Every structure is written in C-alpha cells, then in structure tokens.
Amino acid sequence: MTVELAIDHIGSAGDGVAEKDGKSYYVPFTAPGDWLRASVLEERGNGSVAAIDEIFTPGPDRIDPTCRHFGTCGGCSLQHLTPAFTADWKRQRIIDCLSMAGIDGANVLETLTSPLGSRRRVEFIAAKRKKGVMVGFHLRRSHQIFDVGDCPVIDATLLALVKPLRALLPSLLKRNSEAKIMATVSENGPDLLITAKKELDLETREALAAFTEEQQLARIAWQQSAKEIPEAIAARLPAVVRLNDVPVTLPPGSFLQASKAGETSLAEFAKSALGDAKTITDLFAGVGSFTFPLAAGARVHAVEGDTELVAGLQAAANRAILPVTSETRDLYHRPLLTDELNAYDGLVFDPPRAGAKAQAEEIAKCDIPVVVAISCNPVTFARDVRTLIDGGYQLGDVLPVDQFLFSPHVEMAAVLKRD
Ligand SMILES: C[S@@+](CC[C@H](N)C(=O)[O-])C[C@H]1O[C@@H](n2cnc3c(N)ncnc32)[C@H](O)[C@@H]1O
C-alpha cells in the first residue's frame, strides 16, 4: 500500500513523522516539509513505518547526504538534514524531555557539535563468511554486516585499520563466526579490544603481536565474551589519553567521551559551574574526564563502579601529584548518602543511559550548593533533574553536546544550585 504524506517533524528515533487520517506514519530519511509518496511497511505502536518511494517536493532543511553508505549503514539516520536543523532538533529534544518532566522555561543553550571525523571510539563488527571477512557496521535495522569503505564520522586513523583488519582476521576467526572490535584513539596509537569466541593459540597470539607492530597500535586485547576480563595480547606502548594534560592509561575497552571536542565542552561547562568549589565529588567518574580538569583548582573525590578505571585514574593522579582520592562503589546499589555528600561543596554526576535515580534522590536531600548533571539520555536526565528540583535545587543553564553526528543521540550538561 502506498500513501502520500507531508512530513511534519522528526520523531525521537530520528524518523520523519506525518499524520494522515488520524494515523501516524514514521518515514526514515525524511525532512519536515517533505511532500512524498511512501510504501507502508509495518505497524509501529498506533502508527505505521513507511519507506520513501518518491519525493515530490523536498522540505527546506533537506540536503544531500555526505556519505555513500547513508541509507544502508545502520550508523547514521540524519545526514539528509542541514547541520543547523539537526543542532536545533537535538536541543529541542532536551527541551521536550524536560517539559515532559514538568520543567518548562529552562535556559537550554545552543548545541555544541563535534567536528566531522572526530569520533575517537568506535565498534566495528567483523564477520567471517565464505567469501572472506567483512569489517564494518550493521546494515540498518538488520544483523547483516556490510564492508565499510568511507565514514565521515570516525577518526581517520581508526578508519585506516579496516583494510588491514580484513587481511588479518580470516586466519583468526572461525568460519561463520563474528567478532566485535572496539577501537579507541590513544596518544600511542589505536587501542583495540577484540571480542570473539576463540581460544588463542600461540600462532594467533604471534599474528596479533605482529599486527600491533605493523599498524603501530598501542595495544590489542582479546576477550571471548563481553562478560570476561580482557587479556592484553600485545602492548607496544601504554594506551594513554590526556585529560587536562594528565596522561591516563586506559583499561582495554573502557568508556571514553566519544570525541575530544565533546569531552572538552562538557569539562569546560563543569569547571565554569564549579569554579568556586574547593572540594568536589565526581560520581560515575570513569577514566576521569571531569576529575582531572576539576582537580586543577579543587580537591576531587572520584567515585566509579569499575575497579580497573578507578585504579588507572588514581595512579595517574598520584603520578601528577594531584589532590585526588577515589573509591570503587556501585552507585546504583550504594549511592553516596546525604551525610557523605555534605562533605563537598560541588558535585558532578555522569551516569550511564539508565540515569542515576537512587543517587539523585540522595543528592536532592543534601546541602551541596552547586551540582552539575551530565547525561547521554535526555529522558533519564529530565527525571533526575526533576528529582533535584523537587529537593529545592534551581535549574540553570543546560548545554546540549552532539558527539554522535547524524544519529538521534544527544548529550547534555546542566547546572543546579541551591542557596
Ligand atoms: C557515561 S560514563 C561517564 C564516565 C566519565 N564521567 C567520563 O566522562 O569519561 C558512565 C560511567 O559510569 C560507570 N558506572 C556504570 N554503572 C555504575 C554503577 N552502578 N556504579 C558506579 N559507576 C557505574 C561506568 O563504568 C562509566 O565509567
């Protein structure tokens, strides 16, 4: 069945949305103002998903996508929109989520967008098939993999590894098996973590060590599954990133803000908001993206659930003789309690996508005058900010940061104060 539709807006998943005869249609790769004919594919909630057949009139924000894989690659869904439209759409996503949590009139700043080619952490998928090994990304809404040639989003040194990996992996992977390859830019070359079900024999280890040298990698680590602790197979040099000029060694596969520009924007925001604080706690601290910038002017207590990350952060702080203490703690099950929080005059928290419900409930009861909330999920961000407002905090500036270009993702930082 085909329908003629006028796209009204972009929904939260990045698809264009049109209303017709009381029904919603979700059409990927469309822009507001597009007038088009589409084929109806499947039901989604109370509406239907449809695919473009023909665009009669393009909307004013439609542009030609920059990448030849756009439309088939599962990584990008918004390349057909002007950067200005996308930046504003991401900002509006945050405003809408805040509004749904009953928070209206927030001062949401302009989105800071990372440059093209700045994504420094990426997961490639590799699959060994009859014809050889493919290395790339999933096709859109599919488990199938396609060989990536170009990518306007990721760092060139990571993209340059795709071809050599295609040559390396056939002898390493079992027939019809798949592997995930997490690649991260470090100061001493790319750091790779390969996740694949295979016991490594001596020959495989030697091949990985030779690859590390040939490609000037910092390290290759291997794990059989995501649940296992990765084993470093070959390390040429430490996988180091600089956080406020402090060298920090990354554990294999560890979280890092997706772009240096994004990390800097979030850290600058936190620093400026917490400028007067002398004792700060950084919750969900990771490698210390905010700990190190903040430790230039205050004592910082970093709290994080991952033991390896805490060890790396503390070792780096000790080497740099910085006033940093740290603690491994599961903040979902054992949040810092109000009495503990009251030892600080500044706080930053940056949880995973699920947010920090239990921790926000404790923060809402504490006396800390300035809190910075950082998040990668506008829905849980709005929920946690609501909790803080209900506890007497006032919401100040909110900064949208776009590190995941051409995807519906957005990150944000907000300052909350109490008198
Ligand atoms: C979004 S990352 C932020 C890391 C860091 N703030 C940064 O910007 O690099 C979230 C961090 O929360 C940590 N984490 C996840 N679950 C946790 C838990 N239950 N308790 C404490 N930390 C947790 C992860 O290991 C990760 O480092």
From TrEMBL:
Class of enzymatic activity (EC top level): transferase
Keywords per UniProt: 4Fe-4S, Iron, Iron-sulfur, Metal-binding, Methyltransferase, S-adenosyl-L-methionine, Transferase
Organism of provenance: Sneathiella sedimenti
Active site: C376
A Pfam family annotated for this UniProt entry: tRNA_U5-meth_tr
Domain of life: Bacteria
Signal peptide annotation: none
Protein's recorded name: 23S rRNA (Uracil(1939)-C(5))-methyltransferase RlmD
